[in-house]
Amino acid sequence: MTAVPAGRQTRVHLVRHGEVFNPDKILYGRLPGFGLSENGHRQAKVTAEYLAGLDVAAVVASPLDRAQQTAAPIAAAHNLPVQVDPRLIESRNAFEGHTFEAGPAALARPRMWRLLANPLRPSWGEPYTEIAGRMLAAAEEWRDTHPGRHVVLVSHQLPVWTARRALEGQRLWHRPDRRQCGLASVTTAVYEGDRLVGVEYAEPAGPTGNTPGSVGA
C-alpha cells in the first residue's frame, strides 16, 4: 500500500441509490429492470454536485441498474468510468418480488412463517454478518487502492446501513424504520491509514427516510 502523508485522510463515501420507478410497490431486491424514476435521476445529479469538488479517484457501483444509474453522473463529474464491484449488491431477501416484506403482512401467510423465525440473523435473507463482511471488505480494498483520496461506492440501503453499524461498533440487527440512510444519501468512512477516525452522514438530495417500496433497497 502506498504510504499516506501524516495527517492526510482517505474518505470512502457509501452512496445509496436514488428513488426507483416502482409503481407496483414491490420489494424488488436483486430483480432486474428496476431503474431510477425521474425524481431518482434528479437526486443522483444533486448528489453528484455535492461530491463534484472532491478529489475522487474512483466511482464504483453495485451491478444493479439503479446503482449504476446513480453512479453515472458522479463519475461523469470527475471524468471517470463507473467500475463494478459485486460486493456492493443488494442483500438477498426471500420476500423479493412480493408487495410485502418481513412483518405483519407476512404473518397473514402461514407458508411464510418459517422465514420469520430469527429476525436477528435475519432468517428471511442474507445474514447481517455477511452483508457487513462484504461491504467492509470492499470499502477497505478501495481505500487501500487510493490512499489519501476520495472513493465513491454506490450501493443500497441495507448494505450501507449495515456497514455503518459495523463501522460504529453497533449490533447489526435493528429496526428498519430507524435506518438513517435516505435516498441518494452519503455515508462517509474517514480513515487515517487503515484506522477509522470518523463516520459522517449527509443527505444532499433532502430527507426521504424509508419511502414505500424502498425499504432494504
TrEMBL record:
The organism's superkingdom is given as: Bacteria
Record's PANTHER family? BROAD-SPECIFICITY PHOSPHATASE YOR283W-RELATED (PTHR48100), PHOSPHOGLYCERATE MUTASE (PTHR48100:SF51)
Record's GO cellular component, any one? cytoplasm
The UniProt entry, under SMART domains, shows: PGAM (SM00855)
| Organism name | Frankia canadensis
Organism lineage string: Bacteria, Bacillati, Actinomycetota, Actinomycetes, Frankiales
Protein's name in the database: Fructose-2,6-bisphosphatase
Q: Name one GO molecular function term.
A: phosphatase activity
Listed InterPro entries: His_Pase_superF_clade-1 (IPR013078), His_PPase_superfam (IPR029033), PGM_Phosphatase (IPR050275)
